[in-house]
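seq as requested:
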Amino acid sequence: MKMKKLFLTAGLMISMLVTGCGGDNAAQNASGGDNAAKNKIVVGLDDEYPPMGFKNESNEIVGFDVDLAKEATKRMGSEVEFKAIDWSSKEAELKSGRIDVLWNGLDITPERQENMLFSEPYMDNRQVIFVRSGDTQGIVSESDLAGKAIGTQAGSTAETYITSKADLQNSFKEFKTYGDYISAFMDLENGRLDAVICDEIVGRYYMSKHPESLQVIDAAVGPVTQFGIAFAKENTALRDKVQKAFNEIVADGTAAKISEQWFGADLIKKK
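C-alpha cells:
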C-alpha cells in the first residue's frame, strides 16, 4: 500500500508540474511572450547599422529607429531593451522568443511576410549603388555592375534581390556579403570592392560622415521597398499594441520631429 501511495503521489506531482508549465506557456503566448508578460519589450537590431541603430562613442545603442522604439514603448508603459543580434538570423531570433520585435530599418518583403508579422509601413526605402568618390567606373545603373566586385550586407534586402537574379549575380566579377555595411564600405574605400549596394538612407548617412571618399549613383537596384516593424508570426497582440502607440506618435508630430533630427526632413509615411 505504501509503494502504491508513493507512485500515486509522484504521479500527482508530475501532473501538477506539467499542468503548471502548460499554463505558463499559454499565458505567455496570450500576452505576447515572457518579456511582454514582464512588461519589457526586447528589440532586436543590428548595432552597426547607422543611422537606424548603432553604438555611439560611449558604446550606447542610439539611432533613428531606437528613438522611435523608445517613444512608442514609453507610450505603452513598457520597459525596452535593445539587443544586438546576428542580422542574418533575425527570423530565428524572433521565432525563439529571444527578442520580441525587429525594429531596425527592416524592409517588408513577401518572403519575410511568410515568417514574420509586420506593422504598417512607416518609411520608403531604395537600394542604391555606392562607389569611391571620383571613380564611378562607368556605373550609372544596375546593368553596369557586370564584371565588377560587388558587396552588400548578409541578410539584407539587396542580398535577397541579387541572389534571386542568377543572371545578375553571375555577371559580377565577385559578390561578397558582410556582417554589417560598415565593413563593406571599408572594403570599398580600400579598393577591395568596386561598389556596394545598400539601403539609400543608411548609405547616405555613412557617406555624410565620409564625403571625401564615397559617392552615390542615383539609380535604384531592384524595387523600392518599405520599412516595417516585425514580430513573431502569431504575436498579433503585441503588434497591435505597438502599432497603436506608433500611430499616436505619428499623429501628434513626435515621429516627424525624430525624423527631422536624424535626416533633416520628415520622412515618415502618412496614412
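The chain is about 45% helix and 25% strand.
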